[in-house]
Specification:
globular, about 290 residues, about 70% helix, mainly alpha
């Protein structure tokens, strides 16, 4: 009897299943995914810019509608909250402008990250591309939107003659840390929300709650010196403050930097382990 006939005689029960990839193999595949995304970084920029063009197709001002709406929001909220918090408008308005622009970047990024893979379902099923490229696309798209809103910050700083000085340079490495966190968060939430579709509304509610408990529209000094040391335990405050503080001419505390770095390490570590584990399943979840 030939080998083919012997295999057929043994039946389907004898067919060998593909072995589950080992932990090391998963790590290698995840690392290769990131390397491939880096080689396609120009494509990521192109897709991000295309997203913005499609979102504002037919609009007169395009993405500058976001800039205009941010300026109107700052003007409307500035006078009200400066009165409520008994603060000098000259000191409070630059703080509020910077806080709202940076917070809107974080909130929009979190919201887009939840739909990162599910929104790209058609492309994932039809084109083989690294999954981390879809996450990078989200980050780059929101960076471009942030660049438009920088006009509001610059205008407010010029009007009130705010100059951060040399301490403003500390915002550059802090923003680089933001980009790492943003990529990790986009991969993490994209994978989790592709598997569990109940997570996006939960995340939206949590972000809305954090907006009120994080010093965005109110200054950290309002909690008093006795409780101010608790603020770095809020990772959103730490992430916001390491960029906002230097741009306002203030150097964040060591505790704030330590909290931001520790949160970043934890986020990247959890994301790496999850991405290496479920990377091969994302295409079946979307």
């Amino acid at each position: 009897m030939s080998a083919a006939m012997q295999t057929a005689a043994r039946g389907p029960a004898s067919l060998e299943l593909t072995p589950e990839p080992t932990f090391t193999a998963r790590q290698r595949m995840a690392l290769r995914d990131l390397r491939e995304a880096w080689t396609l970084r120009r494509l990521g920029w192109t897709l991000a810019w295309l997203d913005i063009k499609l979102r504002y197709r037919g609009s007169v001002l395009g993405p500058f509608w976001l800039t205009l709406s941010t300026a109107v929001m700052v003007a409307a909220m500035g006078g009200i909250y400066a009165t409520l918090f008994h603060m000098n408008l000259r000191e409070y308005l630059p703080f509020l402008t910077l806080s709202l622009v940076l917070w809107n970047f974080l909130a929009a990024l979190v919201g887009d990250a939840c739909q990162g893979f599910t929104a790209a379902e058609t492309m994932i099923r039809s084109v083989r591309m690294p999954f981390s490229l879809y996450a990078a696309r989200i980050v780059l798209r929101n960076v471009l939107i942030l660049a438009h809103n920088l006009i509001v910050i610059v205008a407010m700083f010029v009007i009130y003659a705010v100059w951060p000085g040399l301490s403003g340079l500390l915002a550059l490495p802090a923003f680089a840390l933001w980009l790492v966190d943003a990529l990790a968060l986009s991969i993490l939430l994209g994978a989790l929300c592709a598997r569990f579709r109940d997570i996006p509304p939960i995340v939206g509610s949590v972000v809305q709650m954090l907006f009120f408990v994080t010093p965005v529209i109110w200054r950290p000094e309002l909690v008093g010196n006795g409780r101010k040391w608790l603020l770095p335990f809020n990772p959103f405050f730490s992430a916001l403050e390491i960029v906002r503080g230097p741009l306002l001419g203030e150097v964040p505390t060591v505790m704030t930097y330590a909290s931001a770095l520790l949160s970043a390490l934890l986020l990247v570590g959890v994301t790496w382990l999850l991405f290496a584990r479920v990377r091969g399943r994302i295409a079946f979840w979307v």
